[in-house]
Give the backbone structure.
Amino acid sequence: MKKNLLMWDETLFRDPEVFEFDYVPEQFQFRDNQMRELAFQIRPGLRGGRPLNSICKGLPGTGKTTSVRKLFTEIEETTKKLVPVYINCQIDNTKFAIFSQIYRRLTGHLPPASGTSFKQLFDAIARILVKEELVLLVALDDANYLLYENEINKVLYTLLRAHEAYEGVRIGVIVIISDLDIDLFRAVDARVTSVFRPTEIYFPPYEPAEIREIIQVRVIQGLYPNVLSEEMLLLVIDQTQKIGDLRVGIDLLKRATMSAEHAARRSIERDDICGAYHISRYLHLSYTVKTLKDEEKKILKALAEASHKEKEMNAGDVYKTISESVKIGYTRFYEVIKKLDALRLINLHYRAGKGRTRLISLRYEPQNVLEYLS
């Protein structure tokens, strides 16, 4: 029996890095057309000109971020004159925060935490670009968060019109959006659209055969032989296709392997996969809740608690309940509700009657929402 058990210093992972979300695979499959289009948009920057602007659009887990990160790695290996800067807008979603990250990429450190105005910050960035004859390429990942915070116009306007205030500054922008309901051309104002003029690059969901091949490659790279049988591999693929998000499958593999390791077994069993699935399928909920502000978490918590009693909630009634504990005006409350709807945490719809009654329902079971909030 001991031969079938792991020793304390043994592991089932050949390379655990393969199962991390920010891992960029050497062999990146099924996105050749999108990569070629992105490379075409970026090409003027390699020659010292301003890169063309792009929008990468598609559902979560369709390879948008990986495509951009892979191209950025290739740029960094090719030239020092085109500087790619990746911004995660779930984390950095204000104009000052985004330009602080650009400053850090150019200088190696963040600007002073206090006493620095935005004008001083941007002046410093522009001086570096002009003096060192650098071209800047900024990727705004999950840029829909800038829309929710009403920052998108400020950020794009500053980036795209920088050359008007600072002669010689050349900046291109890649906007990455995972919310297919967003029409960015309508969302931004005229002074931005007049200079933005992006090419939209669509990332379709992976086909079942593509999901299978991608997961197989990750298993070969990340796990030792015989850890995952063909039968268990098919189960992982089936669970991934149910959710339709490749990231869920990769997270599922990681958790199932850790479960088998914890039990000191040399292979992954059905119970490991089924147990991991119950966690991995809430990946979107878990990840999104972490990005919410305290005020937004309190409102989501109140919605979850109210949802125990009533599946569909009247927005006005919910506000009356929430305003007793959360000091918030109705306008701000409704902005938060619209954001939670856009983030696919709740459904916001209308019922005809005297006026238009706004109705709210959770997309997840209330106990799951409360669990991840806590």
